[in-house]
Amino acid sequence: MEIRHIVFDIGKVLVHYDPDIPFSRLIPDPAERQWFFDNVCTSAWNIEQDRGRKWEDAEALLIAEHPDHAENIRNFRRHWHEMVPYAYDDSVVLLDRLLDAGHDVTLLTNWAADTFSEARGRFPFLERPRGVTVSGEIGMIKPERGIYDHHVASFGIEPAHALFIDDSQKNVDGAKAAGWQAVLFTDAAMLEADLNRMNIAL
Fold first, then answer.
1. CA distance 70 to 45
2. Predicted pLDDT of residue 155
3. Domain 5-16+86-197: homologous superfamily in CATH
4. Phi and psi for 134 in degrees, rounded to 5?
5. Percent of the chain scored above 90 by pLDDT?
6. What pLDDT shows up at residue 83?
7. What angle do CA 96, 144, 134 make, to 5 degrees?
8. Distance (Å, rounded) from C-alpha 193 to C-alpha 137?
9. Is the pLDDT confidence value at 188 over 90?
10. What predicted TM-score, i.e. pTM, was given to this entire model?
């Protein structure tokens, strides 16, 4: 099936993300730090900010449960900018080559609305594609079916002719369940091979 639309995830595809970067300094002991991520600022807690929950509400919820960790709970948002230190230059080159070749490119990301606004200011290449769906702005997250359908409706995309690129297998599977084509991102070299295999000119 011919690819007419290319949709990139952002975190860990175009931009690096790692909460360990600031927290390796804030909680130096590895076991203690892992406990904090497993029991306090968990992935399940953080994804709700991607769904649109306000940071103030998220922090209040955890501080009520873990008052002894109040400072580091607040540190998660306070030091967020350190968690996204750089873009993957080789992935951005591929993005630019696709755009320069005239392909229709959009972005679809699980990202809190306020921190994504910061990211846009720091990574100008995020403005190059035709548009972006940010989960925190619409109240839906991948791999829920609704966010894929919302992206399709927003940008006039034909699902069967869309290729989604994401680092999470469950999000890739979600796109396929919504009728899209999709590939799992591991690195830029593999992505370039996938694009070539699918006869997508660069």
1. 15
2. 98
3. HAD superfamily/HAD-like (3.40.50.1000)
4. -110, 120
5. 99
6. 98
7. 40
8. 33
9. yes
10. 0.96
The tokens describing 1, both together, are 């099936």
| Domain ranges within the chain, ordered by starting residue | 5-16+86-197, 20-83
Q: Tell me if residue 202 falls in helix, strand or coil.
A: coil
Query: Predicted confidence band at 51 (pLDDT cuts at 50, 70, 90)?
Result: very high
Three-class SS of 87-147? ECHHHHHHHHHHHHCCCEEEEEECCCHHHHHHHHHHCHHHHCCCCEEEHHHHCCCCCCHHH
In sequence order, what DSSP letters do the residues of 7-62 get, joined into one string?
Answer: EE--BTTTB---THHHHHHHS-SHHHHHHHHHHTS-HHHHHHHHTT--HHHHHHHH
First-to-last CA distance in the chain?
A: 18
pLDDT for 111-170, tens place per residue? 999 999 999 999 999 999 999 999 999 999 999 999 999 999 999 999 999 999 999 999
**Peptide bond preceding 19 in cis form (omega within 30 of 0):** no
pLDDT of residue 1: 84
The phi-psi region of residue 43 (left if phi > 0; otherwise alpha if psi is between -120 and 50; otherwise beta) is alpha
For residues 165 and 171, is the Cβ–Cβ distance under 8 A? no
Is the dihedral angle over the CA atoms 186, 180, 5, 110 positive or is it negative? negative
Q: Vertex 45, ends 173 and 176: CA angle to 5°?
A: 10
